[in-house]
What we know:
The protein is mainly beta. Helices cover 6% and strands 44% of the residues. The protein has a single domain (1-351), classed as Methylamine Dehydrogenase, Chain H. A five-stranded mixed beta sheet has the order 6-7-8-9-13, with no helix packed on it. Strands 1-29-28-27 form a four-stranded antiparallel beta sheet. A four-stranded antiparallel beta sheet has the order 2-3-4-5, with no helix packed on it. The longest helix has 8 residues, at 2-9. The chain is globular. Residues 357-365 and 367-386 have low confidence and may be disordered.
Amino acid sequence: VEKVEEQLAGLRIARRCVPSEEPAYLLDIHTSRAAQPGSSRLVAVSCSNESIRVYDRETLRFLREYRGRGGVLSGVRFAHTCDGVVFSACSQGTVNCWDVRSATQKPVQVFSGYPSNVFISFDVSCSDLIVCAGTEKVEKDTFLVFWDARGITDCASATKEPLGVYSESHNDDITKICFHPNEPNLVVSGSTDGLVNVFDINKDNEDDALISTCNSDSSVSSLGWSGEDYKQVYCVTHDEGFCWWDMAQLDTEEPITLLHVLDVRESVCTENHGLHYLVGGLYHEKAGKLFLIGGTSTGDIHLISCGTDGLSLVGTLCGGHSATVRSFCWSPTDESLLTGGEDAQLLLWKPGAVERSLTKKASLKISSSVQKRVRVHNTSLKSRKK
């Protein structure tokens, strides 16, 4: 574990993408898995200007861009079994799916929701069989909507209707959805109602499907799976709290809460740098260790180690970003890290790398209209605690 912590702290900038002509916040990052032999890996980034940008994973060379057909795009995911297929949820009530190997700008598949749906979160199961999206609350309703995703690569612009919905388990915006990395029937959802719900979607109805409800006591901004066989669930809240639960303890007398930190900024000592926000979690499979990624408004990135006895700072990555970091993607194959921020920069960090690019980092001021459309880290949410 110590070696892994040293390695993380030793990450250095290997590549920096050429700045786009239209600067935008980089809100989510995902990489393809190179599922097909000989295919080069790709990076997709969802941006605050309602676009998805695709880059070459190694060189960060810009390849293409997709726009939603009206509506804000949120989240980005590659299919697991096909490198060229990328998904994003849209506020217009669809999940769009593009094929980066084709020349068309149109989605090859559109998963349509119900008329009032505004999708702000989604994920794709590890088998690529199911797509699930979470809605904003409209009147009293908030939904998890499910679709059958089979045949995504050979359907030209077909529109798919939902398989069904879960409507009883959350009562506010569903901000995050994450399928289990290895078990396609398990999915966890988080909401501004503070609840983190684990479902087994193989069950016949929503009541039976709900395996566990955990309360974060705050608004959920990010979540994921961790631990041996990924039996643990963790979440980060909009007011920089952290919760960590062990689903393996559900049928035992042991408590399922491994750690609950109300404000990580107060519990992690970062000397002069400070910790202003959390971005999310990273489970390092080789080390069997969960880490959090956070940072400062000036672009420093903090790596934080999680243990049942508390949190500790592993290291700080400096000199890359000049503003808040919004997104990251960890690659276990070459132990590298991609980060994106409010400075419109996409960076690739590798152990002991030396930056080859000569582009100067620009401190980009992006118009305030972007901030109105983007969820900001908010400290006023404490008043909403259950």
